[in-house]
Amino acid sequence: MNALIKLEMIKNEFEQELAECRDSGRVEEIRVKYLGRKGELTLVLRSLSELTPEEKKEAGKLANVYKNEFTEKIHNIKTKMEETSDEAEQGIDITLPGIKPALGTRHPLTQTLSRINEIFISLGFSIAEGPEIDSEFYNFEALNIPLDHPSRDAFDTFYVDDEYLLRSHTSNVQIHLMQGQAPPVQAIMPGRVYRPDAVDATHSFMFHQVEGLMVDKDVNFSDLKGVLSIFCRSMFGDDIKMRLRPHFFPFTEPSAEVDISCIMCKGKGCRVCSGNGWLEILGAGMVNPKVFKSVGYDTEKYTGFAFGMGVERIAMLVHGIDDIRLFYENDIRFLNQFK
Amino acid sequence: MKLSYNWLKDYVKIKESYEKIAEGLTMSGSEVGAIEEYQNDKIMELEITSNRPDCLNMIGLAREVSVVFEKELLLPDMKLSGAIKTKQPSIVCVIKSKKLCPLYTGRIIENINVKESFGKIGDKIFSIGLRKVNNVVDITNFCLMEIGQPLHAFDLDKIKGNTIIIREAEKNEKIITIDDVERELEPGMLVIADDGGPIAVAGVMGGKRTEVTEKTKNILLESAYFEPISVRRTARKLTLSTDSSYRFERGVDKDMVIPSANRAVSLIIKESGGEITELIQAGAIDYDKVPINFRIKMAEKVLGIALDPKRVEKILKSLGMTVETKDGAIRVTPPGFREDIRSEVDVIEEVARIIGYSNIPAKFERFVPQIERKEKSRKVDEKIRNLITSLGFQEIMTYSLVNEKGAGIFPEINKPQVSLKNPLSEQHQVLTSNLIDGMLKSISWNINRKNNNLSLFEIGKAYYVQKEKRPYNEDALLCFALTGTVRKSWHEKDRDADFYDLKGCIEALFDGLKMETYFFDKKIKGVLNSSAINIGKEMKEVGFAGEISGKILKGYGITQKVFLCQITIQEIIEKFILEKKYTQIPKFPFSSRDISVLCDETLQAGKILKSVNSVKNKIIRDVRINDIYKGEQIDSGKKSVMISISYGQEDRTLTEEEIEAAHNTIKTTLSSALGVSFR
After folding, report:
1. Which residues of chain B have pLDDT under 50?
2. Structural domain tally of chain B?
3. pLDDT tens digit string along A256-303?
4. Do B385 and A303 touch (CB under 8 A)?
5. Residues B122 and B255 in one domain
6. Same domain, B108 and B189
């Protein structure tokens, strides 16, 4: 074929393809097709040596003109495309809602538990867990709660057989923990507990507790107050007040109930705190030596403190939730509020 | 227990306001709740802990107030006043069960005048919530609330025979108590009986037959000590808790059995006249008051403050304790009404609560830096929760107590159930062995409230019987489910969630945990396209995934498709690698080649992938399925599967020939292993 005709055909084809081209990727393809190392125009230029001198002169001249022309056209269309692509964004309606990926959420109780854990971890406590189905020994006897004693009234319990029960508090983990290690002990024990209470806005037969335990030489009541005061202020705010009232728990002596100044009314008295300005949030005390005896700790050498709190109660206070049942209904309109 | 502010003043001269008194009581351990106004008086509702029966009466509370506010305690006269008839009592008491009743006393008062309630005594007991009955019963109740000793008056003339026996009830014995209820008794329950049978349930409630009425002329006044455990069991069995049983089961003051009766007798004679006989007494209480060794040093060690021995001694004495100091050692003997004080720490608590917990400072020097000891299981738990919430799932929390049907929802994956002996209801009587029941309940709850598009997850436990190490076991599980429309927006067409959405989430989760996943067919009744999820090189089975059958969903009132998986966490914890090791990022880009496999429609994609992966050539870096095509240009019964294979090497760019060779090996392997062709 005549080289000049071939060049004409290449030119026509090139221009048609370029005219139909809509994106810069395709422009690059076209460039490679015609001007690349194995490009059609490049091949013509390389094959010039096979031609007669006259043909060679004419075709060579034309091929070089086309090469420059093609290069320029490709450059121009690329530049134009870059400009128009900047303008094309005008087709977007920025007021339409975006395509939002779904956000997962953690259950408010898990969030509260994590918060409690974090605070105690920062104080050097480790986290221990224990069985929910446990024997009477761990739930009662080892904790100095004898059978047929009024102190068991507060611990009505679900039984699964004559010996095993659903723990009514996480204090059972204290015993497992101490049986397994010598002092010092410094741990918190979160988990599920069960009591046969009919369900209403403030009662549930299943709920969560966090138990804390610290045992060493010379751990005392002052230290307990220190730990609890840091916890309360971290959890509920630096400005809250805390007070300890004497109370009775079979597994601690002296025992205390811990109140914080009402986080709703700042202690002035409101519906949440029944008007007295204080909210009870914890039970605590110095570990009763009888408990140490049940795990074989030397009661002359070691002292310790323990405390326990209800996670639901704390979550309800922090978030202003007025019905404990909401935690277990799993209504997404509830769960979504804790993103 | 209710406390009258005005009545309190009979025993302790206080000038402090009722608010101050309430505060003082609360901060020393007798928590004051609501305070009500009643006829110029303030009635405080107290929460008395089970170890302090001594605070279940006015004198006990007055003692607390007297110690806290450092005032004198004024005790009433407990001596017997009135003439004693010389004649012998007409009644004899016999204790058959000394264990349950070590001491029983009675006093006959003759020719009394029973009238309606009167004056101050009636008003006082009424102010703290007791019923006014008549002058005699009111006095027994007054003494109960004043001293804490329950007393009971029988109509002497209605007692059959002349012997009162304190014994355990016989089988099938019955009594009509003064609340007009017939109660069935059983052995183990202590009763007071005459010739006609039981006339009182000891320490709990008297019988109707011998009740004191306005016609009563002669009475027998009972004052006794009943064993706490027995009274407690009886009251619980009869589901009958009275002011009397409440005190007996916590323990009354053994020293006050007779003085209390004396006080009541004196008041009755003063009020309604009458003559008394000698005391009828059966049994006696012998108990030793054991002194406790108390060390100031130990108290200081426990409390963390320095104590003044003189102040400590003063506090203990004011609480009624005997304090002896011998050779520097202190021996403390608690009074009869403080049986809760048995050891050194009990004494320490007394000191602490009177000094005031608020006077013990908070110390912070205990916080020494500790090496973080977070268990691997907690780290993995945390990791899973992070991954799955980042996939858009919302966490739920469900009851671990479910009904029998829910606990056994999929028999194939079910382990032996743990049931409660004393459930609250059928709905919550079994510990669940799956998280599926709770998940479906939560889905149903939300769909019923018009929220149909849900991605939910729960990390919880399965409980089951397995008598290896312990009789019962608890395994951590992860369950997640998808239902409804996937990502609803104006931008794309709605699409219902399907199996692949669920599978994708499972794969993404394990990608995040750096574990490979494999899915195998596994038949589970009630699950469509049910498959076993296997992980790691050993292909350990960790759970299952699939679509819940319509039949099961119907039971939960769900009519849309639900895709769900349940995974055991233990295996993941074991396999999880906490510290990831860095591998060099390839410096030379990989190149990708496609193969279009033409095969039978029924051929599982997994077989194609497995076949490709069986080619051992380290330049094959990744194999994935890009497209499945059926329809035009493809014969019916066939499908086209497009696989993309990525080739590469860390240290150089591969040559065309190397890639071509590997690519051809894959093709040959595919066609010889599966008999497929290529497009």
Report:
1. none
2. 5
3. 999 999 988 888 888 888 888 899 999 999 999 999 999 999 999 999
4. no
5. yes
6. yes
Structural domains in chain A, CATH included, are: 3-91 (no CATH), 108-338 (3.30.930.10)
* Contact residues, chain A, for B49 at CB < 8 Å: 247-248
pLDDT of residue A79: 84
CA Rg, chain B, in Å?
Answer: 40
Residues contacting residue A13 through CB under 8 Å, at least 6 positions apart: none
Cβ atoms of A84 and A32 closer than 8 Å: no
| Beta carbons of A121 and B372 less than 8 Å apart | yes
Which residue reads 């003064």 in tokens? B178
Question: Angle CA(B504)–CA(B505)–CA(B507) in degrees, nearest 5?
Answer: 65
Is B345 buried (19+), middle (13-18) or exposed (0-12) by CB count in 10 A?
buried
Instruction: Please report the ipTM that was assigned to this predicted complex.
Output: 0.88
Single-letter residue type at B123: D
Q: Hey, is the C-beta of A234 within 8 angstroms of any chain B C-beta?
A: no
Angle, alpha carbons B653-B655-B657 (nearest 5°): 160
What per-residue confidence (pLDDT) applies to B82? 65
| pLDDT, position A85 | 66
Q: B59 with B99, same domain?
A: no
Contacts of B449 in chain A (CB under 8 A): 331, 333
CB B44 within 8 A of CB B18: yes
Q: What is the mean pLDDT of chain A?
A: 90
Residues B127 and B252 in one domain: yes
**Strand ordering across the sheet containing B540-548:** B394-395, B454-465, B472-483, B562-568, B540-548, B527-535, B517-521
- For residue A208, pLDDT over 80 is answered with yes
**Angle at alpha carbon of residue B595, lines to B591 and B600, rounded to 5°:** 155
| B676/B672 Cα distance (integer angstroms) | 8
Q: Is the domain of B569 the same as that of B655?
A: no
Query: Cα(B74)–Cα(B520) distance, rounded to whole angstroms?
Result: 84
pLDDT of residue B369: 66
Reported in sequence order, the residue ranges of A36-184 that DSSP labels E, i.e. its strands, are 126-127, 133-135, 164-166
What global pTM score does this model have? 0.85
Instruction: Kindly identify which residue of chain A lies nearest to residue B368, measuring between CA atoms.
Output: A124
Extract the tokens encoding A162.
């004559």
Cβ–Cβ < 8 Å for B564, B548: yes
Show which of residues 26-65 on chain A sit within 8 Å of chain B, judged by CB atoms.
none
End-to-end CA distance of chain A: 74
Distance CA A55, CA A1 (A): 12
Instruction: Find the length of chain B.
Output: 679
Joined together, the tokens standing for residue B557 give 């009132």
CA atoms of B421 and B406, how far apart (whole Å): 18
Q: Which of A214, A187, A113 is nearest to B375 (CA)?
A: A187
Q: Which helix (H) or strand (E) holds A60?
A: helix A53-88
Query: Do B442 and B406 lie in a common domain?
Result: yes
Residue B510 located in a structural domain: yes
Q: What is the pLDDT of residue A89?
A: 62
CA dihedral B629→B635→B637→B639, nearest 10 degrees, is -20
The answer to whether the beta carbons of residues A70 and A35 sit under 8 Å apart is: yes
Are B487 and B595 in the same domain? Answer: no
**Domain ranges, residue B626:** 591-678
Do residues B404 and B490 share a domain? yes
Residue B406 neighbours by CB distance under 10 Å:
23
Is B50 in the A-facing interface, judged by CB distances under 8 Å? yes
d(CA A133, CA A161): 10
Q: Which residue of B has its CA nearest to A99?
A: B489
pLDDT of residue B370: 67
Pairing of strands A185-194, A126-127: parallel
Locate A181 and state its tokens.
């290690």
Answer whether B368 touches A (CB < 8 Å): yes
In a domain, B82, yes or no: no
Per DSSP, helices labelled H in B219-292 are 228-237, 243-250, 257-272
